[in-house]
Amino acid sequence: MKSSIFNIFWSFTSLLPGDLNDCPDPTNTTEATCVKGSAAVASVIRHSIERGDGPAFHFPKLDRESKFVATHPEGWGVNRLILHDYFGWECFNAPPSLFTDEERLGSINLLTPNFRPTMSNVALLPSSKWFQFLEHIHIHEETGAAFIYIQGESQPLTTPAVESMVAALDYITYVNEINGCIEEDSDGFSSASHITNDTNICLIPIVYLAEEPLRNEIFQAIRDHHNPPLGFIQGFGEQLSPELVNNQTLVAAIDVGGSIISHLHVEVDLDSWTVRNFTFNAIDLQNFPSKLKDDEYNQDMEYLSTLADEALANDPIVGTTGFMPLTRSVSESAWRMCMGGECPIGNLFTDALRWTAGADFALLSSGGLRGEGWEAGEVHVSDLWAALPFMNNICTGTMTGVSVFRVLNYSTSVATFQSTYTEMGDRLVQMSGMRMTYNTQLEGSGKGRLISVEIWNRQKNEFLPLERLELYHFVTDSWMCDHFDPYKSFFKDELKMEGEVPGEVDDRRTVQEIVGAYLSYLTEKGITYDTSIRGSHVNDTAAFEPMSFIQTAESCLNNFYWETKLLTCMPCPGVNNVKFSDDRITFLVTPDSRDLFGRNVLSNRETFNVTLAARLIPEWVLLKGSANDLMKGSTLLQPGKSIAIDFNIVPSALRKGSTRSTVSFGVIIDGDFPGCLTDLDITFDTLVEVRTEENFNHLGAIRAVGFTFMTLAMVLAIIFFIWTHRNRKHRVVQKSQPVFLELICSGTFMMASCIVPLSIDDSIASVQGCDIACMSAPWLLMMGFGITLSALFAKIWRINTVVSNAMNFRRVVILEREAMKPIIVIFTLNLTLLMCWTIIDPLRWQREYINGDPTNSYGFCKSDGKASIAFLVLLVLLNGAALVQVFVQSYYARKMDDEYSESRWIGIACLSWLQVMVVGIPVILLTRNVPVAQYFTSSVLVFLVCMSMLLLLFVPKIKSMSKRVQRQLSGFQRRRSQGFQPHPPPVFDTEISKTDENKQLRQHVRELERALEELVSDS
Known about the structure:
This protein is α+β, with helices and mostly antiparallel strands. It has 24 helices and 36 strands.
């Protein structure tokens, strides 16, 4: 009777007893941290063999996630050093992602024919470095056990699981038939490759299934096979004791948590191919028996401690962060924080990728992110490798908003949003530089769950909605770009729209190196990375209208066409940017006109070619030169090019009056724009007015009226100036202070002279002469007005000051040069403002069409900038302030004799100015485009201001002087008969003798008061 006895050991414990810093003294058998690890597994297997349990086989799992592997100089190759070179185990199991990047961390150190990975449903290309080392079935020669290792179909590089397992069982059956172990009753078998079997032994098939979703299909195929395996081991779910099914297949579920060693002892009857006996034992490494910690165990622990020290020496600090929570660990394999939504480790890695690439956004798969996290503070290299234990590189490219939508719409549609392991949980992406809103209550298989997407805009420093045809620079890793379906299509094959650039992998640095550099950069800036959740994944269960960025040719509306390169409905092209330089060309035909020449330039500012041809040309318009060719055929006009349309107007074909007509050309758009109207028209108007002459609206004969007003005002000012000078010693004139009366006459003369520049236009002067006249008018008007007002103010202020002090028995002498100070100040300020105005922004002569009619225009003065308005306002405020001061001083002198202050007549004059300005200034503004009316109004306004000032100031004095002679004579005779001799009137320019006694001075004052009372009573 043939039989076979063997022992199978499974354990998913780490290589070391714990973390790098655990088990500081490996020889201390009571140390709590000196448990678990490969040394413990080796001790259990060794003692089993020593007990006589029979041959033993261990199927270890490759450690790619621990800090130890991430920081050891050998990288993943340290697995070979421990598992094969030191403990002598023959093979290992690992997920197919091991082969997706042949340059992963230390993977080159695993390439050896004596330590092979076993994966039965994985297919590699012959070009792969792993091709010659991969085993589809591992045969343990000492026991004859043939191991079939089945991965889940969601993993990369996998082949159909059920078909692969059946093929492996068929091959084992075929070998057993050849070796005489079973009868040859198979229906034939196609030999498989990559199976080591150099001995003629009977093979005992054992199937190991790594993922649960295929469990029922696999188990049904096992039951249906004519030579089923003797063992079916499940590497998922809770640990289950072995159960014999159909008296032939032993079904068990082992613990993959990392703290249990599962030991299956099997005795097989090779004659009947049945399990004769079996036992199952689970050893808890947390309570590792002390009897197993022998000298050889301690020696193994010391060896592992030496390797741990090598890793610690190769684990520098890269920066600081806040607290990083648990993402995924070996001991808690069901916990998948990133598969449930936004996770801090995903934010860190995507932020680092976006930082190094300068991209608009970064995306990573949630499936690869893991690790037990770390406390707030320092972060080591080992922490980063524990968080992403794969040697991935960055991948960059450019995609439109449509492609961004495809990626995120797929991610949110198929992801489960659960923080525990699910088959499609790794489809959820982590992101930086963007945020998305989705509704998990929507059906993912319908329109999707994606509600909105926003991209961070660096220029505006805010999130902006995703634009459909906007180009965005993206960054991800080589796993997403090259291996992970269907993302590798999203990031490469499907980027075909115009402007898109498929992802390209840069293998110069790993993702972990980039994250380390990012943290180092932040540390240099004094920044601790913030690990808090920031809201990049928003689940809005109140939003039920998904995004829809996908368009088809059938969905295009009217006036839109399908652009294949952009996969977008685009607006039909128009000719808005194919235009003439002038929309309308106007001609004036006079009796002297002959043939009139015109030109209009047609420019193509669109992005496509257009073909031109003449459509409608008036009979009195004759195209000339190359434009005449458009009458005979068509002309191609390329983007950025122009063509001159030259033509003549035939006056003989027109009647007197205005004629308007349209010149029309056909424009045919070149290109493929299906469904669009491409034959359009473009036009310009020609307006011809047949007139005898052009109307310039010159002033003409109205100048005589203005010069008459000016002459009257100027002559009257001269007369009053001469009268004042000749009578300057007369008592009436002397009381009115003749020097100021002469200044008032001079000011009004200057104001009246401003009518001269107002009378100048381009009918009697050149444009340069008109420019001078434009600026002369405000000079003469403002300077004359300022001199007049300041002289009035100085005159009244001087008498007010003397009289008010005399009433208080104070003697005050104000000389003329002191009273001239206000005049000098106002004159200087006016002069400064006018000079600045003239230099900075002077008025210039311009001519403008009335209502756009080129045959009817008017000339006027206008500055080029806005400064002239400011200067005009300042001049008005300055002289207005002087006018207010005149009012104030007149009010103070209201009770004084008119011979001294004339306050009543000055008030009347100022009121008349106000009336004239209230009426005249609006009229001037309203008649801006009627030069004759504006000139007349301006002349009358200046004339009235000058005449009111002169007449109201001087006529009362002349009249008073004629009456004064008679009154003084009669009064003198009366006072002489009474023995009274009045003192002469005060003279302001002569000082009173200082030798008189105080008594005599008081007597003079009393006599002066009596004289003033008599004069008032006489009047």
